Amino acid sequence: MPAIQLENINFGYTRKEKVLHDINLEVEQGSIYGFLGANGAGKTTTMRLILGLLKANEGRITILGKNIKDSYPNHYKHIGSLIENSSLYAHLSARDNLRIWCDYFDVSPNRVDEVLKIVDLDQVGKKKTEAFSTGMKQRLGLAIALLHDPEILLLDEPTNGLDPMGIRDLRNLLQRLRDEGKTIILSSHILHEVERIVTQLGIIKDGRIVFQGSINELKELRQQNVQVDIEVKDIPKTIESLGDQYSPIVNDHMITLSIDHADTLPKVLRSLVKQGIDVYEFTPKRKNLEDMFLSIAKK
Questions:
Q1: Terminal CA-CA length for the chain
Q2: Is the dihedral of CA 124, 130, 134, 138 positive or negative?
Q3: When comparing pLDDT for 90 and 71, which is higher?
Q4: What one-character-per-residue DSSP string does 38-85 give?
């Protein structure tokens, strides 16, 4: 049973203009799902629909097997969320902010010290939040989301405003929460921030899902359509031996080939050497994961 499932979701703020188009999305229990897309692609809107803050025009959303239309508002017991910025009382301490949220969630105040420790804010619990850095506020927002010990966490751009150390600390915290059995949906517009921890990945562009799979499946796409730069002494002989199969482009003593898959690269190199061609340089140019994200989004 998926933790969260969206089936054929369509949504628009007006009748004339759709924001989301036939969204089908499935998040496995115990996974960290990276929800990627440029700003304005539809990530936050999708998360608001999952929370029930917006109502889909068409389609079905289930949380732990239950349709949110039937389980509302009880499904909130299973989800903790950090959507955009948390609502904090700046003149109150972190501990007092959490105590207020305990009333909202009907949770024992004893839980406050527990979540402060989880997000590494236990040493500054008495400090007013107006003096908190952006990273500390993000961690306090996560503490609020964890107060009622939900099975699922929805985190919308949680790395916004964080420095590299803050991003690393958040990454370690999310991995720890996942090891404890939490399911996490993490949205971002920057792939390299999440690629180290996600187990599933969804890419949204202009309100449409354009890729969904594992990080390994995305890496496999990286092996396809590889270009390789080859430096040789005898250009004409090399072109003749290659033929038109790899669409060779000549630039000075360098030839650039387009290869269908990285597994073909050794075959090309062996063929050139076997035909007596002196190869001085053979440099594959694989796309990094950020390039893959942009390439998929463009397609």
A1: 31
A2: positive
A3: 90
A4: -TTSSHHHHHHHHHTSS--SEEEEEETTEEHHHHTTGGGGGEEEE-SS
**Distance (Å, whole) CA 15 – CA 2:** 31
Contact (CB, 8 A) for 191 and 159: no
How far apart (Å, rounded) are the C-alpha atoms in residues 95 and 49? 30
pLDDT digits (tens, 9 = 90+) for 213-264: 887 887 777 777 788 899 988 888 888 888 777 888 888 778 898 888 888 8
CB 224 within 8 A of CB 264: no
297 CB contacts (<8 Å, ≥6 apart)?
A: 37, 38, 203, 205, 210
Query: Which amino acid makes up residue 264?
Result: T
Residue for token pair 């402060």: 116
- Delineate the domains of the chain, giving CATH numbers in brackets: 4-213 (3.40.50.300), 224-298 (3.30.70.980)
Does 6 score more than 90 pLDDT?
yes
Q: How far apart are CA 140 and CA 152, in angstroms?
A: 17
d(CA 9, CA 251): 49
Q: What integer pLDDT is reported at residue 17 of this predicted model?
A: 86
Tell me which residue of 164, 24, 138 sits closest to 86, measured CA to CA. 138
User: How many CA atoms lie within 13 Å of 38's alpha carbon, on the beta-carbon side?
Assistant: 12
pLDDT at position 247: 82
Note the pTM of the prediction, 2 decimals: 0.77
Q: How confident is the model at residue 286 (pLDDT cuts 50, 70, 90)?
A: low
